[in-house]
């Protein structure tokens, strides 16, 4: 027994040692993940970001090569500071500051020293890089824009900050990440996957070849290409029509919810946020607190919707039974809705739903709103019913589109007014301005465009979205799911007939386009701001919403032009031109086009600073 026990123990110990060595050397790779291991140097290969195309296959965003100089402070030895400064065109102070910053990040890990060298700078430095221990060159790709529009849609890429590095182990110092627009929303898809190479070093720090013959190395995988719903030609045309104007244009395909154009004005050329001057240019854009070029008015600007809101007032009135198609109100250039309270109107005589829409009669829709709220046992109940119908159109909340969140707008309910009138006493006449899109109601341009898509579809809409196709993948199914409003389909036809005659008999009859049946609604919204601490009324906003063709809608659109006087003056012509451009590909209304392309509102926007008077209700 003793003769067997000793050899058995020796054999067992040998097997344990062999198993442990096998595990450490073959199975356990955890230690090679530690980049601080002095025996292994980790190098990353950066993939190209995915390309971005428009709905017609036009390439919008590609890539261009860029070279970053990285530094690992602990590996710096006998660096000729003057030579490297001369070579890179930096001062000695810059050199010291950059190295100190790298030490703060990590003395033993590579971090960015000088980003985005051009080809000439790269060639000059690469030729002498062997003299500079601790310095390395990493090739990356920067965006190469094929168009000079849609900056708000694309977003941009920038170096990751410390917080991102701490919260996401994928990113290292100097890595690039998408910010704003589709670059941010689809970052995980566009960025691809970094390749990793592990280099074995000897005790003197010299590279001696791939670690374990490269069995742990991986290759970079290019990001997936994406196709946007955007029509690049329509987007470009929309931005040109907003010459010297401020506002937003949103165009949607009603049958799919695909965003055809998302214009904010003023905007900027996306290429200025690429390269060494990106930070400088971004700062200039950010500090422009007057024009706000970084502020996406299509998603973020909350405006009173004005007269286009009458569409909803009419639909809710029909749905609740407060009115029918033949309900008639008599307009005397306005109406009294309370003691000494008069709502002005440019219409007169007996008004029904049809001519109330195409003449944009305040009396008709103010009376409709009042009867809708008063139909219920209390104003609070009436407002809650009204509010819930409106929210079924996606109003008063985020629509869920695939761009960085915008604003919710505001659709008040009974609790809202109970808060503002804690002692009670409010009633339909107190809040009657809501009837015509003033009052407390606020909407964004994309909400208005989506509302028109729902009207065009006679009661349903798809969540607006900018993604059409992802290479090798499917888009989120929420973008192909119908959302139904609480308004019965039968109520949309009389409203659509009224919208059609806005172009034939009403406030947009001068904007007709031959061969296209357009349904639209003009709008004017009061505009207030604070000047020297005093609430001041500025020139009204110009608003227009539309869809076309009437019987087979292919485009729904909302246009806001800030300080644009009235709906048919600026917003209406732009909407008609955008519709004709999309449906026919060419413009016949050259009179409208010339005016929109060459005339703007620069003088209007200077009035808060020049002291010139504003134009009110003209």
Automatic annotation (TrEMBL):
Ranges of residues in domain Penicillin-binding protein transpeptidase: 247-576
Example of a GO cellular component annotation carried by this entry: plasma membrane
A biological-process GO annotation: regulation of cell shape
InterPro entries reported for this sequence: Beta-lactam/transpept, Beta-lactam/transpept-like, PBP_dimer, PBP_dimer_sf, PCN-bd_Tpept, Penicillin-binding_protein_2
Primary site of residence: membrane
Domain of life: Bacteria
Gene Ontology molecular function, alphabetical: penicillin binding; peptidoglycan L,D-transpeptidase activity; serine-type D-Ala-D-Ala carboxypeptidase activity
Membrane topology listed for this record: Single-pass membrane protein
Pfam families: PBP_dimer, Transpeptidase
Localization in the cell: Cell membrane; Membrane
Record-annotated Penicillin-binding protein dimerisation domain positions: 46-208
Sorted UniProt keywords: Carboxypeptidase, Cell inner membrane, Cell membrane, Cell shape, Cell wall biogenesis/degradation, Hydrolase, Membrane, Peptidoglycan synthesis, Protease, Transmembrane, Transmembrane helix
E.C. number(s) listed in UniProt: 3.4.16.4
PANTHER family per record: PEPTIDOGLYCAN D,D-TRANSPEPTIDASE, PEPTIDOGLYCAN D,D-TRANSPEPTIDASE MRDA
Protein name: Penicillin-binding protein 2
Species annotation: Flavobacterium alkalisoli
